[in-house]
Amino acid sequence: MAEAPHENAIRIWFGKFENKDFSIDDASRSGLSVWWSVNGVHHWVLLDEGKTITTELQKNRWQTVVDKEGKYY
Fold first, then answer.
1. This protein's superkingdom (predicted)?
2. Can you give the pLDDT at residue 71?
């Protein structure tokens, strides 16, 4: 089965974070918001280029996770 493009992006970005690679070349890329726990990834979303993660955005994402999973972690 072919890997979905978003899965590859997630693997690349988590690898970069683990290696503390925050190079300037990546500054123009779109953001990735991931909600996860010890049970795995619960929700992810690729943000539009230039979109800023705000408190309101995070609150809405959290509500999406709760609505989808039916529980509050």
1. Eukaryota
2. 67
